[in-house]
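New to this. Please check this fold:
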Amino acid sequence: SFITATTAFMKKYAVKPMRSPGFGMLMRCMDATECQEVAVAMLRHVATDKAAATSAGAVYLTALTLDRADLVEALIEAAHALPTFALMDHDSTVVAGRGCAEQSACAAKMAAHGVTVRLLRGKGTSVHYAAVGRTGSFPGIQHTKLLLLGALFIHGSVNWATSSRGNHEKSSLSVLTAEGSDQASRDMRE
C-alpha cells in the first residue's frame, strides 16, 4: 500500500515526521502575478503596522531575478520598519539574459535605501559533473525564490521579475508555527 511504501521510504532515508503541528500550514498556491502582488501587500503591511513589524522581526527575500519596481519600493518601505535582507544571484543578468537587465539598478537602489543586499553564487558544479562522468565547471547560481516575513512564508518557483508573469510558475503561501519561523529565520541568517 502507499502508506507502507511511504513509511519504508521515510525509514530508509531517515526522514522523521515533524511533531504536530509541524512547521506550518499551507494556505494557498499562487501564480506569478498573484505571488508578486501578495508579496508587495505583505511588505507594505509590515511597513505600516508597528505590531506586525515587531512580530516579523526581519524580512528575508531571495531571488534569482528581481526587476519589479513595486517590489523594490515595498522592500525599501519595509526597511524603514525592520531589518530587510535581499539575497540575489550574483550573475543573474548573465543567467537570465536581457529579461532582467534592471536587476543591478534595483539592487543598487535597495542598498542605497536601507535594504541589506547580498549577491550570492552557487557552490560550483565541477565535482558534481565529474561524479556522473561528465565535464563542466559552472559557478552555480542562487536559485531560491522566497519571502520570509515572520510567520508568513512564500516559497516556490516564482521569480521576482516581470518576465515571470508569462511563465508557468507557482509559489505557495504558508503560515509558519513559531518553531517553523525560528528555523526558517536561522536558515536565512546562515
